[in-house]
Amino acid sequence: MTAHPTLADVVRTLEALYPPSTAEGWDAVGLVTGDPAQPVRKILFAVDPVATVADEAIEWGADLIVTHHPLFLRPVHSIAATTFKGSLVHRLVREGIGLYVAHTNADAAPRGVADALADAIGLVDRTPLVPAAGPSGSAGPDDGAHPAETGIGRVGRLEEPTTLRTFAERVAAALPPTEQGVRVAGDLDATVSTVAVVGGSGDSLFDAVRSAGADVYVTADLRHHPASELRERAEFEGGAAGGPFLVDVAHFASEWPWLRYAAADLTERLADTGTVDTRVSIRRTDPWTARIGSAHRA
Ligand SMILES: [Zn+2]
Asked: Which residues hold a divalent metal cation (predicted)?
């Protein structure tokens, strides 16, 4: 008879990989649905806890979905199936499917979201862009798990300096396809070597990117004013070739590489408690479904 871990075993293992204590204070991570006593045979990994991912989990017969984004970030007073989120909870509970969220704790962890993105685009010699502060204000979390490797984003260098154009093409090739593709701010012929990355929305971290001396910053959801001001300042201080340049990717795409790491690392760590089958969702849950090019670019 093949042994399978319980959901409690899986949660314990996920929390060793992505300690909840390293999540941001506003975040909502952990188990959303599921009975800790239930056996877990099949685990589906996805960026978003949305209807199409629930469909995929039900079709495949998954016992657990691990997502990056929370289903509930704010308190609710009803999970009746009269809303899209309540309906999703009902479907998961009815099918006996657990939902577990690893969000900013997965961003910060070694081999987490930021590391997976950094690996995908070939960054070496890297450190956290903003190292995690421990509860006592020390450089790392007090739980002692790889303190120097935990924190928001990563900064490192490319094996060989290259042009911004070649680098942006490499980013596009490394990430799953999206309608947005890859947007660039800066001189495509400029040379880039030091790179900062933040999975998900990263325009609050420009100061850290500048302090780190990054030539280019890869992140998602960059807004007009922060992006414009960053480039204006860079050109004022360093001329047209002055960094940091910006490479803006789809939020979904920036976080997707982590799913493979999570599946592999969880499977390995669960080996003593039993076998699990894992699958990384290939459903594109990026909300953007089309892009109409500007007329003058026809
Ligand atoms: Zn995100």
From this structure: 68-69, 107, 251, 255
